[in-house]
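Protein entry
_____________
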Amino acid sequence: MALGSRTIAWLGLLILSFVAPPTSAQTAPTTIPAETAGVAVYVGDELLRDYNPASSLVVKQTLIDKPKFPVIDIHCHWSLKQSPEALLKAMDRLGIEKAVNLSGGFGDEAFDLLKTFHGASPERLYILVNLDFSQIDAPDWSATQVKFLEDARAQGAAGLKLFKNFGLTTKDQHGRVVPVDDARLDPIWRACGRLKMPVLIHSADPTAFFKPVDRNNERWMQLKRHPSWSFYGPDFPTYDEVLEQHNRMIARHPDTIFISAHLANTGENLPRLSKMLDDLPNLYVDISGRVPELGRQPYSARKFLIDYQDRVMFGTDRYPGRPDQPREKLYYRFLETDDEYFNYYDHPFPTEGEWKIYGVFLPDDALRKIYADNARRALEGLPPIKKTNSPTAP
């Protein structure tokens, strides 16, 4: 098909190949490794591969090695492959007071992690344990999980983490996806409230992951690199269904503290997230993995983070000192500075979306709460401080 000289096509690379110029003969696709996938652009007959334009803007660049105030990273993942000593050393270097591991596992694995990490530094290394869904259809499944939580709490477990497969892909023996508000989990939520164990839950995912993976999907590049991230189609519940289940469940358990990971996966819709927080007074959210969503809407994000400063927590979705895709310093820069148009990633390609971000230069009161104060309350099983109606700070 002939294209005008002003026609521009953007082509992400993974399973698909670079497309030859329009005048060339049709050729077979070439598989491209994900780590070398890039963007191609063509104008007329000229094709430019791995298009990565450098910005001509002359703007302030602020490098922050340590945060303005001590940080609690509420959303980390590590395993027994890491060592307490290495984590603590990295935390000191990065200004992290406490780190919370959400990959605590269940059974013997959970108790091994508790002994290795929480045992080594109970004031700084926290472990959230997980549920075993393999026997969910058993009559005593709920009671068994409650007993595990009680034993784990006695050994120092700080809370419970639910991964995103719950509500999306976890199925019972009848092949039905277990909904987030399934009544079989009610005794577990009640036990967490009784034990003062906050529940950090990942429900749904970015809205783009529930849409067709086509030219209109703003996360096409990431979904081509990671096809398993797509939840579009009849095999999965819809985005709205999962969030509605999530909200009903939290409303049904007002005495249990919940932390919804990744801004409750509504970072692209801050009015919806604001209403969710207004309706659910026992809910916090963390910012892990969603700074890209916030940073491309800095005016709205700044207002939201100030207005809901008692409900938002710092998190990275990494472990302190992880060498690939480090996030701590980028997140400090986003929260503390008014820097403009900078990369949200330290990696060869964008990990979440094809855009730059802007800093939101939060005031000190909001920074202190988001960095650590809110996490301290949640880890003690305390609800958020009730929102005041004070106007957004300048």
